[in-house]
């Protein structure tokens, strides 16, 4: 018999779950996320103020608070987790974290979140030109946030402008949407937490049970956000790539909007900025093209903290919304101060390109940059604060 002619077939597409299943998964993970934020506040409320005194003392210094935010975010690889935890601490019903102390931590989280795409760029380290392009795009995010903190942290320390503005906005929003604080969602959260608390108190003494609740709540926040990012990334991965590519061909303003929208879709600025790194390595975009998307990702990531504020209950619930608004105002103000003026906008771009040139000549400097800046310096500050 004659051989049957070979007909090439397209590779099978990866199976995707039904949209209804994905929707239910997203809703379930959002509920778990809010459950963790709510449990965090309840745990600190029951634990009492004495256990928090030492923690508050370490964050009363704004520079230490900044380092705490950087280190916490680099360790969990997510500013969303850090800012959500801060919202829970600020909104704690008893002995909440003062907003003035939390503001530098929020700024530190903005710096810490840039470590992910910088680490991603190290994957190109064996190919010289490819690494130079990728590292420059990754670190322009670093330099933008460094400049933002350098400008706004001293201003906030002397004037409290972000805190005061956020407090005023909270008052306006609370007047319009105050019913939210008694919503059925919060009743469902408390109803779900009650048996968990009862179970913990049956297996451990009271103080140990509250510590276990705080740890469990932190784990729930981390796992829910991690899984939520995976589900969203699987659902919109091809769309994200096409949206970013289309946005890069338009104006800078469109690039910022693309960064906001994509980050809101995937609930992670790290995914948005990390997506730019291989595109830069392949020579498909420049630092100047990627920069607006990076700025937009900074703004888009603030919606997670805003959403976490919905889970806050009790007399200090509005403070959770206030610190979430501080995060939004910080990124909006930084964008307005840095991006519109060409000479200032060029600073993070040129700094990133120069650092990439140095890192390309001696690639050990790239590793040293990541280790020292994101882990070594914050840990050193925390250690010195304890000693002194």
In short:
The protein has one domain.
Task: Tell me what you see in this structure.
The N terminus is likely disordered. This protein has one domain. The chain is globular, with a radius of gyration of 22 Å. It is an all-alpha fold and 388 residues long. Helix 5 packs across helix 15.
Radius of gyration over C-alpha positions, nearest whole angstrom:
22 Å
Strand content: under 5%
* Outline: globular
Would you list the SSEs in sequence order as H and E?
Answer: HHHHHHHHHHHHHHHHH
Tally of separate domains = 1
Number of helices: 17
Q: What class would the helix/strand composition place it in?
A: mainly alpha
Which assembly state applies to the chains in this document? Answer: single chain
Q: Biggest β-sheet, characterized?
A: none
Q: Cα distance, first to last residue?
A: 88 Å
Taking all residues together, what is the mean pLDDT?
Answer: 77
Helix content: over 70%
Low-pLDDT residue intervals, each spanning 5 or more residues: 3-15, 49-53, 176-183
Number of strands: 0
